[in-house]
Amino acid sequence: MSADRSRLYLLVPDALDRLAEAGAVGGLVPALSWEEGTTAFQVRDTFDQEIRHSGRLLIETETQIEVLGAEGRSLAQPGVSAARFVAEFAKGPVTSALSDLSPLRCLLPVGAGVLRRGVLALLDDEAKTQARALLLDLCVTEGGAAIVVQLQGLRGYDKALLRLRGMVEAAGGTAFGEQPLYAGLFPGQPDYRPKPQVPIGHDTEAFDAASDIIAAYLPVARANETGVIADHDTEFLHDYRIALRKIRSVLSLFRDVYDTALTDELKTRFSALMVPTGRLRDLDVYLLERERFYGMVPDSLHPGLDRMFALFAEERAAAQKSLAEHLRSPAYRKEITALVKLFGSGRKSGRRKLARGDKAALPAYDFACRLIWKRYRKICAIAEGIDAETPDHEVHELRIHCKKLRYLMEFFAPLFPEAPFKRLIKPLKKLQDNLGLFNDCSVQQDSLQQVLGRLDGATPGDLQAAQSVGALIVVLHGRQLEERARVVGSFAAFNSAATRETFRDLFHGGKE
Amino acid sequence: MKIIACYSNKGGVGKTATTVNLAYAMAQAGRRVLLCDLDPQGASGFYFRVKPSKKLTETRFFEDVARFAGAIRGSDYDDLDVLPANMTFRDFDVFLARMRNSRSRLKKALKAVKSDYDVVLLDCPPNISTLSENVFRASDAIVVPVIPTTLSQRTFEQLRDFFRAHDLKEKKLHGFFSMAQGVKSLHGETMDEMRREHGKRLMTATVPFASEIERMGVHRAPVLATAPSSPASAAYRTLHDELVTRVFGK
Predict the structure, then answer these.
(1) Residue B18: inside a domain
(2) In chain B, whose CA is at the least distance from the CA of A1?
(3) What are the tens digits of pLDDT across the range B40-57?
(4) What DSSP line would sit under A265-276, residue for residue?
(5) Which among A1, A4, A126 has the least Cβ separation from residue B51?
(6) What ipTM score was computed for the predicted complex, to two decimals?
(7) CATH code of B101's domain
(8) B82: nearest CA in chain A?
(9) Which single residue of A19, A166, A275, B162 has CA 20 to 30 Å from A393?
(10) Is some CB atom of chain B closer than 8 A to the CB atom of A393?
(11) Could you give all domains of chain A from N- to C-terminal order, each with its CATH number?
């Protein structure tokens, strides 16, 4: 048995029976045997279906966890996993196979059912196994069924393995993968994608492009509501906020696509949706970066951080509760439903009622080129003026323009050739990382200052916490200066001759 | 990697049954095992239903790495491969030397097909020849089944004499009582006497005379696989544990 000889297939149950009853092929007789009894199992995945999208399946029973499809085979490790995050799993081949999943995402149940294991062997005239297929018969409660077939070659019997593979393929066996498997086992399972690809044509009206993007991101926000309320993991709120932020950026970036008064009204309404989420997200970030903060100050100051993080955790619990209440409130439900209806493209939708602005009818391609080129020129103008003396607020300005440029490019990506587009996005991301760190350091100093203001010297522990917070601010200030010093270099790296040329070619007809 | 030879200069002592069950037990314990059937009268391959290959009768077989690797057959059990019988053994010592040398083409070829072994078990033919001398020299351990009878007692002594005469390390010899019958007082007396005489050269594990072992020829599978809860299986497990401790250490 060796790994490179194994391969996973999917079969429908009837096909397996036919295969087993097929009789001798080339002197080899198929023999099917099933283990006694069945075992209960559950399938888990992250909310954004990272396991599904990578063509794998995570199966957990009472005694072991197994991942199918990792490098075309099956891996198992003993033990039950009550852990919500892969990082909390015991060490083993499954845990390392899943180490590519986002550490921030918890695993949620996708479905459950019963499984049984079996073997389909090809026997020679001495009843020696020459090739075998390990079978996993999965039957999902209120779902579908599938048989996972793992071919297993035996050394020295390559022909038999080829024959078995041929038999499985002839019986309708399909390569193990996302589509047949999840669609078969869990029909009706929504396919959540936090970054929906919105198709935009060259001549799509700017009005429709904007409305389509907004209409695509509203369901993303909505899909995350339940997870925020249940507090499964911090990514629900993060994705919820990103979806709303993208919508808001469409409203401000696609200027004059909607009538000015309408744009202002919509901006206000979407901003109002964001407001109750801000504090919880800030606290989430602090708590997620806990380790990093502990690493910034000497051990002697750690008890003060314990106190600070205890306060954060307490405040977070309250913030989560209040946000959950907000999301459940009839007022919120009414507002979000109204917005969904407003941008819907169906016949009964409100989109036709949206007041159009001067640029509503512009073809998307022209509109995109104009917006992206303008934003890029603006970034160049700011960046070229930045040196060691430039005040911080101008660096912040640069960051915001970069972010807007990135959003524009992502929205309009379908209109442009993929390869040169990627060549622009990559250095832009790097520049944004630098500017992002600079900003984080600055924002965190401000908010730690606020923490200081809330501490009371007379309360036990608060003095200690204040010392630690003070030390953190000093360290963050140092880091901010470091990031600040890198900005000129980062921009130069982004705005290379090649970048300038690509921007001209893609968005300005090759002209300066 | 360890090379373990199963050898007896007397036939019909349960040597092949021992090799087959030890190979199975070692593979079950997670070691990657290659069982080489060197005994033309032996039946290790038969017990694993592996047919002898015609290719193997050709000369200079062990010189040809690709052909050697291609002759190995997977058994029905995980981590247990078989090199079937019917070969000329004249280069077998060369083969063993190559299995030892991690930089040899043979080792590299085996690694390339992910079949590097933790244990090579040899089912040796029952005579003392140049081949057996080379095998003794190359092996880390020689497991010798001994029926507790006067005749077997003599052959074990002859084997020790052979080792001394040819400057082979006697410490490599690991005898054990095979096909022992508790009801026979002669067996009991011989066992006591031999233990006094040979001390550590005899392991404490004793495999009884058992019908399950005889029926291996019918089932064509290790007793440990077909009758795992039988006394014979328990004895093979004890033998395995004791041998593993002796060869691999704790």
Answers:
(1) yes
(2) B78
(3) 776 888 899 988 765 545
(4) HHHHHHHHHHGG
(5) A126
(6) 0.81
(7) 3.40.50.300
(8) A155
(9) A275
(10) no
(11) 3-185 (2.40.320), 193-361 (1.40.20.10), 363-512 (1.40.20.10)
